[in-house]
Specification:
The structure holds 2 protein chains of 2 kinds. By secondary structure, chain A is an all-alpha fold. Chain A has 21 helices and 2 strands. The longest helix of chain B has 30 residues. Helix content of chain B is about 50%, strand content about 15%. Classes of the chains: A mainly alpha, B alpha/beta. At the A-B interface, helix 4, helix 9, helix 12, helix 14 and helix 15 of A face helix 1, strand 2, helix 3, helix 8 and helix 10 of B.
């Protein structure tokens, strides 16, 4: 089973590499004119976003999980807002809004800021879960022993949360490696754009595959370092679910500072599109309502189906990785998650090359693509949570005569409910926002919201793009808000 | 245990719902599969008015038009990957460079049509009958008269004059519009003087390279830039649009026609893989005919294949002398143009 899932995940990539290496013309191998600047651009983006995103996500995660200040619950919920807005939409609206004000929004600094804003929620979600769940007994103990909040954070909570933070940073960094629309708009050279241009514009699949390998290497480094971190700080959580509330009261300027830090990012994420809409609402050209509903219906249906497929696959891989301790299995499940790192358009090409001759239905190919691409999103959280469940629980259940299916149903699924829900909602939001795979693989007369926004935006018709863009944000927000109960339970 | 049961039931319900969703989706797809007397169009254009034209075609001929709109490069790649299995009958692309690329990849099938030869001027179609232009667009200079004297500019070469130092805003190299403009110069003036020209432009520029024409034209209207080179329809769109701030900015922009002016096209061709080449040809003839061609051009404030059309905004811009360079030559010199721009520091 694992083999099948992994193989399905790997097939497009294998097809591509094979096609690139063996069918390519006799063109020279090399990074080409723009290659070095594209590699550098992507590295700078990953580093910049990694640092800013980790700082933002972790500090907000800590503050809202363990400190008490006015509006804490609302601030916690508000962190889900930025997730609803795709980076390309934030970039497009900010560039457009800026141009009315005579500000040219351009370059690396803006790109890092926007990508951090769009992606820090990954770090927040995973770290806050760890802060509020796994360490509360230890934190209480340390508090009794007179350890202050800062020392508690650095000496106890942070090491425990490190795997989750690492998983969050790795996820957001992969998102950055993959980002295409925003970095193009902001004029930052990047590997994702380079791969596409080498492939489609220069007609040089070998060159594109080479750049894609560089991108893969960057992501592999990210994943491996995250694993090393995790291995170093492997600790089982013996508390089970503990509902201990926040422990430190913040008053006066400290509370103000906490509110500012927790309030600014969500506010910025809402303000950018809101300002843009306020600026351009006169030009809003409403698409016929039935057309909009049709687009939204397709986006929704695809997102639901893809979420189901992806989460089932991720659960299977995560569980097998836990139960079958062979090295080959570990590698296999690791590699199956790599799809997240492959630019969506490259993945789509692989699927096209592979699925075209077999006459596979476009919807099937689309779901395959989504599953491949977002498997890691669902799996990262599951892996991190499984690591916190002591193996003795499995062993106990098995010794009491439970079959593996029963252990899964009666032990793991209830324990994994949280991460599974978080994972599926993340996948859902990602699919609604997803562009390159949908654009490349959809059938005739089968546009989705994201596709329509992209088409209008690439024609520079901002007014026409506004309607579907708003709907994407509404859908994303609705899905993000569905995460509230799981946050609340822990908060 | 209660928890587990609830979870199990929930999971079951969710699974059924997901299954239903995917099945309806797939059934929906099956319905959209090919039937005889349909033409499948891959198009790099995205205008709702196009759909009205296609509907008109269906009313007249009974041939249904299925549409897949996308980005030009992506559509070319998709057609290449799908090969003979591709369902596309007609490929509509924007810009000569992409037409040439599709032609080199052997995606078009040569067709003969007396009607197309009559309606499409010779320099706007492939001599081999593989593709035919449907609309024209021009890339003039646009100036803010408060900052730059429009009389200084008679050709694109004048944009390198010292008076424009630090006043010129430029579109980035990744834009195919910039590439084709440089290719046009390459054909007309040769590599050495084009290289000097590109270096002069880069030296005169203000700020970073822009990633969209609209923000560039807006910057000229606001006085951030003195001059720029942009496609005429972006300015026309701002002038005719509903946004008051844009209209105000656009009114301050003056179109200056260099002699000659770089012209590019939207064009279409019947695909190699087409299973209904006859229907595709008829659709192409319909789109290129003077009456519907006018509609196709009007959707985006573009020029029809012959003459200047009836668009009042475009008429107010005045007329120009088109560059004699053919679309095929533009495509052929594209790669060289990009290389030259890269070396000259055009980002």
């Amino acid at each position: 089973m694992v083999l099948v899932v992994s193989l399905l995940a790997l097939l497009p990539l294998i097809t591509l590499v094979q096609g690139a290496l063996f069918n390519g013309g006799g063109q020279h191998l090399g990074l080409g004119w723009d290659g070095p600047s594209q590699v550098l651009g992507t590295l700078q983006l990953v580093l910049g976003e990694g640092v800013v995103g980790a700082l933002l996500g972790t500090s907000i995660g800590w503050l809202t999980a363990t400190c008490r200040f006015r509006g804490r619950r609302w601030f916690r919920i508000a962190q889900l807002v930025p997730m609803a807005f795709p980076a390309y939409l934030l970039a497009a609206s900010l560039v457009d809004w800026g141009s009315y004000r005579g500000i040219q929004i351009h370059g690396l600094g803006w790109a890092v800021a926007l990508l951090s804003l769009a992606n820090y929620s990954y770090v927040f979600l995973l770290s806050t879960e760890s802060f509020s769940m796994s360490g509360s007994r230890l934190l209480e103990a340390s508090r009794c022993l007179g350890v202050g909040p800062w020392a508690s954070f650095f000496r106890i909570a942070l090491p425990i949360a490190l795997p989750s933070i690492g998983a969050g940073v790795a996820l957001s960094a992969m998102e950055v490696v993959n980002e295409l629309g925003a970095v193009r708009l902001l004029g930052v050279p990047s590997l994702s754009a380079g791969i596409l241009d080498r492939w489609q514009v220069d007609g040089d699949p070998q060159g594109a595959a080479l750049l894609a390998l560089v991108a893969l290497a960057i992501v592999a480094v990210l994943i491996v370092s995250e694993r090393l971190l995790r291995r170093r700080s492997r600790r089982w959580n013996l508390d089970g679910e503990s509902g201990a509330g926040p422990m430190w009261d913040l008053k006066g300027w400290r509370a103000g500072l906490a509110q500012l830090l927790c309030g600014l990012p969500p506010l910025a994420a809402i303000a950018i599109p809101a300002l843009w809409i306020q600026q351009g609402w006169q030009g809003l050209q409403a698409e016929p309502l039935d057309e909009l509903l049709q687009l939204a219906g397709r986006s929704l249906a695809l997102a639901f189906a893809a979420t189901g497929v992806t989460c089932a696959g991720a659960l299977l891989l995560a569980i097998c990785r836990r139960w079958i301790p062979q090295a080959a299995m570990q590698q296999l499940t690791f590699v199956a998650g790599l799809g997240y790192a492959i630019p969506g358009s490259v993945l789509a090409l692989g699927l096209m090359v592979f699925g075209g001759p077999l006459m596979l239905s476009p919807v099937l190919l689309l779901l395959w693509g989504y599953g491949d691409r977002f498997m890691a999103v669902a799996k990262q959280g599951l892996d991190a949570s499984l690591e916190r469940i002591p193996p003795s629980i499995d062993e106990t259940a098995a010794s009491l005569g439970c079959s593996w299916l029963e252990v899964l149903q009666r032990v793991h699924l209830p324990l994994l409910r949280g991460p599974l829900l978080v994972g599926s909602l993340l996948v859902f939001v990602d699919v609604v926002k997803e562009l390159p795979i949908t654009l490349a693989l959809r059938a005739f007369d089968f546009d989705t919201l994201a596709v329509r926004v992209f088409q209008y935006a690439s024609d520079e018709r901002v007014g026409a793009a506004m309607g579907p863009a708003l709907l994407i944000m509404v859908l994303g927000l609705a899905a993000s808000l569905a995460l509230i109960p799981s946050l609340e339970r822990r908060g | 245990m209660i928890n587990t049961n609830r979870l199990r039931n929930g999971a079951r319900a969710a699974a059924i719902a997901l299954g239903l969703f995917s099945i309806t989706g797939i059934l929906g797809m099956a319905q959209a599969q090919n039937r005889p007397q349909e033409v499948n169009v891959f198009s790099g254009r995205h205008y709702n008015t196009d759909k009205e034209l296609y509907a008109e075609f269906t009313r007249r001929t009974g041939i249904k038009v299925n549409l897949l709109e996308g980005k030009d490069d992506e559509l070319i790649q998709r057609l290449k990957s799908e090969g003979r299995n591709s369902k596309a009958d007609l490929l509509v692309l924007v810009d000569a460079a992409r037409l040439y690329r599709a032609q080199e990849d052997n995606l078009f099938r040569p067709i003969r049509s007396a009607e197309l030869n009559k309606d499409v001027p010779a320099n706007l179609r492939d001599p081999g009958g593989r593709w035919f232009a449907l609309t024209r667009r021009a890339r003039p200079v646009m100036v803010n008269t408060a900052q730059v004297n429009p009389n200084l500019i008679r050709t694109y070469a004048d944009l390198t004059r010292p008076e424009l130092k630090g006043k010129l805003c430029l579109r980035n190299r990744a834009s195919v519009y910039s590439q084709s403009l440089v290719a046009d110069e390459l054909v007309r003036r040769g590599a050495p003087s084009t290289r000097r020209w590109v270096e002069g432009l880069v030296a005169n520029r203000k700020g970073s390279f822009y990633t969209s024409d609209t923000t560039m034209v807006r910057a000229v209207g606001q006085g951030q830039c003195g001059a720029t080179i942009a496609n005429q329809y972006y300015l026309a769109r701002m002038l005719r649009g509903d946004n008051a701030a844009d209209r105000e900015a656009a009114k301050k922009v003056r179109v200056v026609w260099p002699n000659p002016t770089h012209v590019n096209v939207t064009a279409g061709g019947v695909t190699q893989s087409s299973r209904n080449p006859e229907g595709a040809r008829r659709l192409l003839e319909f789109l290129a005919s003077p009456t519907s061609g006018e509609g196709y051009a009007a959707a985006n404030n573009e020029y029809p294949l012959k003459g200047w059309g009836n668009n009042p905004t475009l008429k107010a811009f005045g007329t120009f002398k088109s560059s004699p360079v053919s679309m095929e030559q533009l495509g052929r010199r594209n790669r060289e143009a990009v290389q030259l721009m890269t070396q000259a520091g055009w980002q």
